[in-house]
């Protein structure tokens, strides 16, 4: 369902049209993310190649509220893109048959804001920005759901800022603001770098297969339970999961869980991540399903800070070995070297 959106400090959007050349999966997919932050940018530059390396031709559409661009609204710009689009070209539901779209905001970020709730639209479709197509890229954005904070007495108050349901999507320098269910990492391969995600309950959820690199995860204190992730893996054959690498977990309060067994077999790893006291010493929740404890994959590796102490962690979570964590520390986790592009430039 189409939504009426409020645009705050829109400034200028640039839509880059990029045709990605067919590529094969590189052996570089297995090169791990460095164990110290000072090596990350060199690693990223080495294995995430720019548009020119994909032999593609850029195209730009300018969207400006003052009428000086080709369109005044993102909605009109997206409507101008033909169905079955095969170029990277900018609503803000992006339909499944319009791939290769980039949203590029100004350095000070542009804001997309909307106040939809699950009661009105359903959880997934309450999103301010809903992307169903593949090869989506966003940079320099604030995506906010402005619905009031759930008070816990009425059903359907959860409200999504971003739903990403297409595969091979990348987000750079994007802030996602909400409370319950802020980010619906719905399905597909995704990459988040230098982002900020805040919320209260299950504020990163879904069955995507995603890497979160150098991203701040901000827990907003709540009167009830706070939970960072609700990863939705249901069966052993589902190749999905969340990998958080060199991230920081901040916030106020105490007792937040890194994740819960919302579905029978969630897979979540935190590596090289700093955690403040906001994290519950137990770390993880079985979601009142003790029978799921043998099936979850909740892993931690070389995390730091008072919220990362392993001594009181639940027994069904693992402090991973170097060999066990390796698959979660490379672009191979999301087959990234075959599709991932660096941040776009205006």
From TrEMBL:
<dbReference type="InterPro" id="IPR033131">
    <property type="entry name" value="Pectinesterase_Asp_AS"/>
</dbReference>
<comment type="similarity">
    <text>Belongs to the pectinesterase family.</text>
</comment>
<protein>
    <recommendedName>
        <fullName>Pectinesterase</fullName>
        <ecNumber>3.1.1.11</ecNumber>
    </recommendedName>
</protein>
<keyword id="KW-0134">Cell wall</keyword>
<keyword id="KW-0063">Aspartyl esterase</keyword>
<feature type="signal peptide">
    <location>
        <begin position="1"/>
        <end position="21"/>
    </location>
</feature>
<dbReference type="Pfam" id="PF01095">
    <property type="entry name" value="Pectinesterase"/>
</dbReference>
<comment type="pathway">
    <text>Glycan metabolism; pectin degradation; 2-dehydro-3-deoxy-D-gluconate from pectin: step 1/5.</text>
</comment>
<feature type="domain" description="Pectinesterase catalytic">
    <location>
        <begin position="61"/>
        <end position="336"/>
    </location>
</feature>
<dbReference type="InterPro" id="IPR011050">
    <property type="entry name" value="Pectin_lyase_fold/virulence"/>
</dbReference>
<dbReference type="InterPro" id="IPR000070">
    <property type="entry name" value="Pectinesterase_cat"/>
</dbReference>
<keyword id="KW-0964">Secreted</keyword>
<keyword id="KW-0732">Signal</keyword>
<dbReference type="InterPro" id="IPR012334">
    <property type="entry name" value="Pectin_lyas_fold"/>
</dbReference>
<keyword id="KW-0378">Hydrolase</keyword>
<feature type="active site">
    <location>
        <position position="202"/>
    </location>
</feature>
